[in-house]
Amino acid sequence: MTQHVDEVRPVGTVSRPVPHVSGNGAPVRPAPPKPAPPRRPAPPTPAVTKEQPAGSASWLPALGVLIVGMFMSILDTSIVNVALPTIQLELGISATDGQWVSTAYSLTEGIMVPISAWLGYRYGSKRIYVLCLAGFTVASVLCGLAGGLGSLVVFRILQAVPGGIIPVTCMIMLRRMVPPERLGAAMGLYGLGVIVAPAIGPSLGGLLVEYTDWRFIFFINVPVGILGVIGAAIVLKKDQGHRDRPLDILGFATIAAGLFALLLALEEGKDWGWTSYPIMILFTVAALCIALFVVIELEVDRPLLDLRVFTHFQFVLPLLLVSVISMGMFASAFFIPQFLQGPSRGLTPVNTGLMLIPQALVLAVLLPMSGLLYDRIGARWLAVSGLLVAGVGLLTLSEINVDIPNGSLVLGMCILAGGVGLAMMPIMSSGLGVVPPESAESASSFNTLAQRVSQAFGLGLLNAFLTVAGAQGLADRSGLLTPSDPQVAALSQNQAEMLVFYQRTSGIAQADAYSQAFVVIGLLCLAGAVLALFMRGGKPTSGSAPAMAH
């Protein structure tokens, strides 16, 4: 028997196959080599990791572009309110008619929110965002060129159509491009457009109205809008639209009608009377349409908005807290300028705006900081502390009176802004973080709707409260004066002094009403701090999709 000895070769040489020989000397052909097993594909590299800080920079330019659009759409609401008296004077219209410049925008903006998510899904979020930003810029030019009330209202409606779509589209795109573990930091920066814009609107509006022309409150959007469109076209990634979900026409019609009736009732209740037939009919129509919308959305296969997000407590609770803190922030932003420019103080729009700058600076500092803290410790304790601080700020503002020093008002507004800066973005991030990706579009729409409705609802109720409390306070103080009072007899001889006396008395009554209103909102914020204890605790979970909390 022959033995086969393997040839030993030095290391590093190339071995060649040695033919095997059978017993009879015939060569044996080697068997064909077995095919190698297919290699498994390498796991995908995560988009952002702690070891790759450069990955976070990939979404920062895109986030900056979104902030520009969000800032511009929200700024236009507060900046116009400051210019309304000047617009009314130059166009020769009454205060009631002039209010429609703001009301028409608010109503149209609210109606467009529910359909915003579907438009982004159908045509692509980038395309919708660029078109809306361009449309908003063009409509701003038209508003600045308006020659009368009718044209200005029509152009404001055209401006509100893209203005209502932009916030939801921005939120959806932010959610897609930012990793869950960095959502807090991104939302903190994003808050600069959501919260700081209303805070600096009165200041900017006052400067433009006093030193230029009221039309520049619209023209200022043009260079910002052009730069935003160019930046969005370059920076934002293109996403394809989907044709597999038709528009839920009945759902959109019912929610649009319900929101229109609700917002119109809240806007006009103080003028038409809260118990008047038109307001009661509007509230009834709103309730019926919204109830019908819920029934339709639960029955159709592809609803306009996914109502299943409301089955999760950790989404509903932040939604309620966002509504409460929005009510406090926007109520102060609405009432304080009114008080400062009222007859008891008589400040100019510029001086009023300068007094509001410190709170904007507080927000600009705390919003990014709170986002970073959210990524480290979660939302619960930031929400609790922020709502407590906001409640303290509102109770500080409740000390308002005709003789209060300006520094005390600024201090109260800064404390309130500190609470909002700590709590607002962590609360929003926590609510969005528990929603699965397939429901993110609906969650973003409901989040924007909650802010819009809560602001209108809060201002509407507080205006009703102020009307009753102010009238009662004025009547009580007037009742203390009798014709036999020597002071009244002296004043009756001098009409100028009588006018000053009346203005001071009405200013005292108005300040008392504001004080009571701030107490009510402050107590709501303190109650919200208790509810915030039931939010998710701990550091937010990271991963490709957020965990769903039940």
Describe this structure in words.
The protein has 18 helices and two strands. It is an all-alpha fold and 550 residues long. The chain has a two-stranded antiparallel ribbon. The longest helix has 40 residues, at 440-479. The model is unreliable at 1-16, 40-56 and 542-550 (pLDDT under 50).
Question: What's the short version?
Answer:
The chain has about 550 residues and is mainly α. The protein is built from 18 helices and 2 strands.
Notable characteristics:
550 residues, mainly alpha, disordered N terminus
SSE topology:
Blueprint: E1 20-21, E2 27-28, H1 60-91, H2 95-98, H3 100-123, H4 125-145, H5 149-177, H6 183-194, H7 196-211, H8 216-219, H9 221-235, H10 249-272, H11 277-299, H12 313-340, H13 349-377, H14 380-397, H15 406-433, H16 440-479, H17 486-492, H18 495-531
Antiparallel strand pairs: 1-2
Helix pairs in contact: 1-3, 1-5, 1-6, 1-7, 1-9, 3-4, 3-5, 3-10, 3-16, 4-5, 4-9, 5-16, 6-13, 6-15, 7-13, 10-11, 10-16, 12-15, 12-16, 12-18, 13-15, 14-15, 14-18, 16-18
Provide the structure class: mainly alpha
The tally of helices reads 18
Strand content: under 5%
Largest beta-sheet details: 2 strands, antiparallel
Q: What is the total tally of β strands?
A: 2
The percent range for helix content is: over 70%
Name the poorly predicted regions: 1-16, 40-56, 542-550
